[in-house]
Amino acid sequence: MCEYMILEDFNMDKYIYDNSNGLWYELQGDYYIPCLVLPDEKEERHIGIWGHRHLRYIREHKKVFYTDLLISGKLQSYLADVEEQAQELFDRLMKQRAEREGITETLKAENQMLWVGRMNALRSAVTETVNTEVIFV
To answer: How far are the Cα atoms of 65, 74, 91 from residue 58, in angstroms, in the given order?
Structure first.
């Protein structure tokens, strides 16, 4: 049998405290739901477009994995790692493919419109590669 202490500062029906487990409960409809808070992550790291794309993907397609990361407090760190990995791959592929396809600063100086068109096509191709290899995995 649980011992409950009702906090008088709140509406008496809204919040109760369970002495046996040390948790507060909030009345939601006809049920008392524990007032739980996720643990704070130790470090704040940048999450950019790649991390957000991956977050959207795991939220929609890998719900158990997403929930495990969220509950364990490792989601932010995981997404930051994905962000770094994807950005490094993107930068490396852009440089390699631009050199291989002859998209240089000389071309940019001589024919800007051609350079922009080729860079946009290259960026689209590299983005698709990063999405396939890192983001939607």
So the answer is: 7, 14, 24
> Could you tell me if 103 and 113 are in contact, meaning their C-beta atoms sit under 8 angstroms apart?
no
Distance CA 68, CA 72 (A): 6
> How far, in Å, CA of 117 to CA of 17, rounded?
64
Measured CA to CA in angstroms, residue 94 lies from 60, 89, 97, 99 at distances of 29, 8, 5, 9
CA nearest neighbour of 86 among 27, 134, 45: 134
> Can you name the residues that pair with 17 across neighbouring β-strands?
5, 24
Taking only the tens place, the pLDDT of each residue in 51-82 is 999 999 999 999 999 999 998 889 999 999 99
Q: Kindly give, in sequence order, each residue whose CB lies less than 8 Å from that of residue 119, ignoring residues fewer than 6 positions away.
A: 98, 103
What is the pTM for the complete model shown?
Answer: 0.70
Please give the Cα distance from 20 to 5 (Å, whole number): 11
